[in-house]
Write a structure and sequence with these properties.
Layout lengths: L2 H15 L6 H7 L4 H12 L3 H19 L4 H7 L5 H12 L3 H11 L5 H7 L17
Helix pairs in contact: 1-4, 2-3, 4-7
Length: about 140
């Protein structure tokens, strides 16, 4: 089996099982390659490491759940497979530029009437770009 096919299977597994306790070693073992080889091959193919891709998927799903508004931050954290609230909050903030609670509040106030498919596309987290800055609130 060629490397690209293995990499696609790893990426598909991450997309499917993002809420499971996954790490690079487990993903590599499932693809019958070493973790170092997976990391070296995954980055050029998809633009980020397998771990970063997994975290992006988790944060993307977390944003979607926060936009729904029926779950609190702790429930969302558990739904996307994160056990530590601190690490989840830090990763979320690093990728989106705002803490999960702020994202939830904003989504609730600005997404009224916007179709979910449009909101998802517009608010999708993108790694390796500057995080949006919070707009100053009028006094």
């Amino acid at each position: 089996m060629n490397d690209l096919k293995r990499l696609r299977r790893v990426r598909d597994r991450i997309d499917r099982e993002y809420a499971q306790p996954l790490n690079v070693e487990t993903l590599a073992r499932g693809a019958n390659i070493s973790d170092g080889h997976l990391s070296r091959q995954f980055r050029p193919a998809y633009g980020e490491s397998p771990h970063a891709y997994l975290m992006t998927r988790r944060i993307e799903r977390a944003k979607a759940l926060l936009r729904r508004g029926d779950l609190n931050v702790i429930d969302v954290r558990l739904a996307v497979g994160r056990t530590s609230l601190g690490i989840f909050g830090t990763c979320f903030t690093d990728l989106t530029g705002m803490p999960p609670s702020t994202c939830r509040r904003r989504a609730m106030s600005t997404a009224a009437g916007v179709p979910p498919c449009v909101a998802e596309q517009v608010t999708r987290p993108v790694r390796n770009q500057p995080a949006p800055t919070a707009e100053p609130q009028p006094a």
